[in-house]
Write the C-alpha cells for this entry.
Amino acid sequence: MRVEHSFRRRSAPSSPQRRSEEDQPLVIIVDDDAAVREALSELILSAGFRPVSFASTRELLDADILDDPGCLILDVRMPGASGLHLQRHLTENGNPKPIIFLTGHGDIPMTVEAMKAGAVDFLTKPVRDQTLLDAVTAGIAMDAERRVQAAVAKRNIERLETLTQREREVLHEVARGRLNKQIAFDLGISEVTVKLHRSNVMHKMEAASIGELIRAWETLPAPMREAGAHRTTI
C-alpha cells in the first residue's frame, strides 16, 4: 500500500530530497479499513503532507512516531482500543497531539467527549476532501505553535535554573508586580540588594525589560513559578 511504503522509507539512507520530505509534517492515519487508509493517504499526499497509516492504535503505539511534528486522523471505533481511548492515553502521558476524529459511527455524546478533550474536529464519513484538509491544516498549525511554545518554555526553564534561590524569590515578587521597596520589606533585605538581584535576574533570563521578564516568567510551568515563592532565611 502506498502510504505504508512511504513509512518504510523513513529508515532508508538519507539524501537531500529525502531529508526535505522528512521535514514535512506527518499525518498519522489510524483506521481498520484498508480502503479508507489508502484513500486518506492519497488525499494527504496530494496536499503536500507525509501520510503514514495503521490498522489499530496498538500498531501506532508500537511504531513510536507520536513525537513527530504533525497530527492524527483517528477512526473512533476499531478492534482493540478505540480512537477515544488513544486520545485519553495521549492526554494522560502529556502528549497533546492534535487529533481529528473521522468516523461513520459518531453520536453527540461521543463528539462532546472528544471535543472537550481537545480534538481539532469530529467529522463523519463520508467527508468532503476540503473539509478534512482544512482540519488537517488546522491540526498541523496547532502542533507547530505548541512546539514553538514548548521550545520557549524549555529555554526559559534552563535560564531559570541559573538563578540563585534569592534571585528566584525576587523574580517571583517582580512578577507579582511588587515594587523594589515592597520586595525589600517582604524579604527582609535592603532596597539596594533587591536592585542588584533584579539586575542579575534580568541578565540571566536575557530580558531587556520588565515586560519581557514577566512574559518569560509566564511561560514557566506552574510548579516552578510557585517554587519561587519559597523564601530563604538570612
In short: The longest strand covers residues 26-30.
